[in-house]
Design a protein that fits this description.
Blueprint: E1 2-7, H1 16-30, E2 34-39, H2 53-56, H3 68-77, E3 80-86, H4 94-101, E4 112-113, E5 118-119, E6 130-136, H5 146-158, E7 162-169, H6 174-180, H7 186-202, H8 207-213, H9 220-241
Helix pairs in contact: 1-7, 7-8
């Protein structure tokens, strides 16, 4: 089984998003999957130009010579696609949106009706993938992921892919702080790994396992006060001694 993962956090492997993504991918490897991981920060993927050459002039191939030339065939052949992203303005990051926009060569321009709705059929050289979302959000409430989930589900429907579920980490800003304090968090990372095993082994992830990944870390009032206190201290310190790099509380 081939798994292609895209981490669109600008913090790459050092961010809160990777804390959930990495054990999830490790669980899939343990069940025998071949996993490739790419970071959008290391890729050059230009925005779609909307000229539709990939549909009518060079069918199935974009004219732009960038890293999508390497990534596109990997996406077409993957059994599972994993999109990992922090929540940015209620949605996915800009680089990941550029990447998704550039996947239109994978479908035909023709319309077909699926479930009484206009869609584009996949090209013969493109698999119908399972798609998994892995996301981290600084806000406390889980419903902050709803717009992003709706978008990814719509993307799956348009390409005739299967939305296989989401590993969501609300109030993820507390993860590293609590890890440094020695708080008991192993169940979250173990659940992320188990979700990977389940997806490869069973073709699905249990709701119980996903709920552990998203479980409450601390009461909302405590989280809000902790975050506000952290940023008050950062503002005061940076005003006195200059800007610090990469404040740890909100790394995504």
């Amino acid at each position: 089984m081939k798994v292609l993962a895209i981490n669109s956090s600008p913090m790459m492997g050092e961010g809160n998003t990777s804390l959930i993504l990495n054990p999830f991918l490790e669980g899939m490897k343990e069940e025998g999957a071949t996993v490739e991981l790419f970071y959008t920060k290391k890729l050059t993927i230009n925005p779609c130009q909307g000229e539709f050459n990939c549909w009518v002039k060079t069918p199935g191939k974009c004219f732009q010579n960038d890293d999508m030339q390497m990534l596109d065939p990997r996406m077409r052949n993957a059994d599972i696609l994993v999109f990992a992203t922090p929540v940015y303005c209620d949605g996915i990051t800009g680089p990941l949106k550029n990447l998704l926009d550039r996947t239109i060569p994978q479908v035909y321009p023709f319309f077909e009706l699926r479930d009484s709705h206009c869609r584009h059929p996949l090209r013969e050289d493109t698999k119908a993938n399972k798609v998994v979302l892995v996301s981290n959000c600084g806000f406390w409430e889980k419903d902050n992921f709803d717009p992003m989930i709706a978008h990814v589900k719509a993307y799956c429907k348009n390409g005739d892919n299967e939305f296989a579920g989401a590993l969501l980490r609300p109030h993820g800003g507390a993860l590293k702080v609590m890890m440094e304090m020695g708080a008991p968090l192993d169940d979250i990372f173990d659940a992320a790994k188990e979700a990977g095993r389940q997806l490869v082994r069973d073709g699905r992830m249990s709701e119980q396992t996903l709920n552990i990944v998203s479980r409450e870390l601390m009461p909302r009032d405590m989280y809000v006060e902790s975050a506000n206190q952290y940023f008050r201290e950062e503002l005061e310190a940076n005003t006195k001694i200059g800007r610090k790099e990469n404040p740890s509380f909100y790394q995504d």
